[in-house]
Structure formats: structure tokens, C-alpha cells
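Sample 3 of the quickstart, ligand adenosine-5'-triphosphate:
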Amino acid sequence: MSEITVDPVTPATDAIFSCRNLAIEFGHGAHRRRILQDVNFDVHQGEFLALLGTSGVGKTTLLRILGGLLAPSEGTQIHFDGAPIDGPPRGVIMVFQDYASSLLTWRTVGRNVALGIENSLSKAEVAQRTREVLDMVGLGDRIDDYPAQLSGGMQQRLQLARALAMRPRVLLMDEPFGALDAMTKANLQDELLRIQRRTGTTVVFITHDIEEAVYVSSRVIVLSGSPGRILLERDVDLPSPRNQVTTKEHPEYLRLRHEIYDAVSDHVNS
Ligand SMILES: Nc1ncnc2c1ncn2[C@@H]1O[C@H](COP(=O)(O)OP(=O)(O)OP(=O)(O)O)[C@@H](O)[C@H]1O
Ligand SMILES: [Mg+2]
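Result:
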């Protein structure tokens, strides 16, 4: 079932991220454990890549490696814009599931958005950018509220707005909608897709939800096993813009969902 569609030796030159022979271990001595192994993939400009996998397979670990927060094992070749990653790459912003703890409770919505740009832009530019991204995520009228006055979905929108204010080239999103109810989650998926189309931002999106992965992405990579490896990689060729009803009735959506589900359960049961 394992399918590696990239040359495991040569780093791609046209990719934003290029990962070759990616591996990582945690722990010491007898407790040392390999978490990811032989992971080879590229992330291309403008794509929406979903990374799918069961709990504990190493999704967050992989995202932290891409974000330059964690060093992989020796032998891994990982490049951003053709250069080896050494610390957080420029223009790469992470968005986490735990929106509440990533917001500053004592700052207003507007001042939370300003956080990542206030040292590099003028006051007028910060104000203009803040309004622009809050409008983008539908929080234009909440600029003077505090995070505690917002619903969970709004707080996650705020985290997204703060990331967008930095005009990222790449958003690394770790189960960003995992803690939200189904309706809020669906709305935010659609908002994110609309924003991504408008801004051309490259997105790497982690989820353990097969339906969410197929719905939002242009490509899905499934991680499985221990240590985690790429089990399956599929292009998602579905009409855009996506629609919560019609996309999910589309024969290709149903086929992909079925194929991925079978692959994951075969692998888990084998
Ligand atoms: N800093 C660390 N030290 C030791 N082990 C770690 C560390 N970070 C992660 N692990 C282990 O690595 C494995 C993968 O963890 P990771 O958080 O990447 O999984 P995940 O796929 O994101 O899971 P989930 O869906 O539950 O978020 C787990 O077994 C975890 O216990
Ligand atoms: Mg995780």
C-alpha cells in the first residue's frame, strides 16, 4: 500500500518544503523510540495539503519539524525554498487547535491581531491590516472585544486573522477545527478555503478526520504505523469552490473517502 511518489534521495528544487528520509526519535537509552521514518514528500506553492493520521502517529511532530521548532534525526534532509531548515522559516506561521491558550486574554481582538506585525509596520499600516484580516474572517465588528467575549469558533477565527495579518507564505495548521462543533467547523472550513483561494497561501493542514481532509484539500497524505510512515498519497480533484452538500455527494469525494478509509483500517487491522 505504501506509495512514495517523490525521489527519496534528491531534494526537489521547485517545492517550498522538501522532506527526504525524514525520521525522528524521542527519549533516551532503552526508552528511545522512533516516531517517524522514511517520510518523503514535497509541499508545492499554493497547494492545500492535508496530513491525515490516527492519534499518536506523529502528525504534530511532523508539523513542528516543518515549522523549524524541532530538529529531526540525522540523515533527514529537509529544505525550505531550497535551503536546509535551521529554525523557523521566514513566512511560515503555525496555527494550533488550542486557540484559547494562544490568544492574549488582556489584549483586545484588534491588539491580538496586531501582535505579530506591530514591530515591523507603522501604526497606520497595523490598523489597516488589522481591519482587513478581521473583515476577512468575519470579525470586523468585534475589534474592541476581548477574547473571553468570543465564542470558540470566533476565537479560532481570531487566531487565523492574527496569522493572516503576517501575510504568511505558508500556514501550518494543527487540527485547527478539532475542538469545534460540526456546524462551526463546516463554516470555518469554507472560510479558510475562501481565504486561501483569495490569498494564494500554501496550507499544510493536519486532521484525523478523513472527511475533513478530503473536503478541504487538493492533496491528502496519510500517515500510519509505528514508526509513522506515508501509507497513501492522493490528489483530490474536486470542483472548486467546495460545497458542504454537493462536494460531499460528488462521486470522486465518495471514492476517495472510501479508499482512504479502507487503507487506514486495513493497515490498522493487519
Ligand atoms: N517531546 C516529546 N518527547 C517524547 N515523546 C514525544 C514528544 N512529542 C511527541 N512524542 C511522542 O511522539 C508520538 C507522536 O506524537 P504527536 O503529538 O506527533 O502525534 P499526533 O499524530 O499529533 O497525535 P494526536 O492526533 O493525538 O495529536 C507520540 O507517541 C508522543 O507520545
Ligand atoms: Mg497532534
